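Go through this fold for my students:
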Amino acid sequence: MKAVVVYNPGDSEQLKYQDVEMPVVKEGWSLVKIKGFGINRSEIFTRQGFSPSVQFPRILGIECVGVIEESTDPERLPKTQTVVSIMGEMGRDFDGSYAQYALLPNEQIYPIDTNLSWETLATIPETYYTAFGSMKNLKIEHNDKVLVRGATSGVGVAFLNLIKAKYKDVTVSGSTRDMSKKSLLIEVGFDEVIEDKENELDTSSEYDKVLELVGAVTIKDSFKHLKEGGILCDTGILGGKWYLEEFDPIFDIKKNSYLTSFVSENVDEAKIKELFDYIETNHIDVKPEKIFKLDEVNKAHDYLEGTNSFGKVIVLNEFE
């Protein structure tokens, strides 16, 4: 089969498109024919060598959509069943989705019944699941004033779409370090765009809820813009820093406000179904910003790392 393999950490040239042996099915695992997958920042960090638990060579990819090719659980996962998989150490402890096929543990393969296109399906799993979990933890209410810190990201745009579809009276502001993207953010539905100047927001406004996607480098400043009694959800690491340092929760968390977080490892079949039900019930128009082919994964990484990146980037397989 065709796959993209990383042998050594480094830039996007380390993503080698080549022939590899098909995975051999083993007890408790099933073979998924991959129809598409999203590209994620964490995969870029892994490719660069910033995931110390990952050993190379490795086929990256922490999410996929596809169909069951060969199953060891035919009742739950029959052949040709449409499925979704995210996280569970795919693309890290074992080979992931940058391929025609992936061998995955049955417990992290989630069957879905849907008429959505592969393009739409490939845009949803990791990005929309992360945005959905963050939205739930923020306990969004009608008339909330919400800030998305890192709004141009795929999760930022997905979060906006999820909120606007149900809470039409909520105002959502988005921050960006590149104000040339202001028109794009307004076009996709943000009510206001705020410049992030060297990790400080260029505004005196305060918000009921803050989705923190930049992470440790900006979280202290985000708390300065949270209303008393508000909630901040720390979800992303777009700032490239994993850990929060010199943070005193007594003084750095806004008075009488709340800090929560969301990670997509908190996933099961019921939660996946809840996400898809929400998308279909609220008629959310899910679409990627850019689509690449499997032999263009390096270009997809370059786009996501570049100054022009915006929204969700996906790969669609064209193999029969």
Notes: The two ends are 12 Å apart (CA to CA). The chain has nine helices and 16 strands.
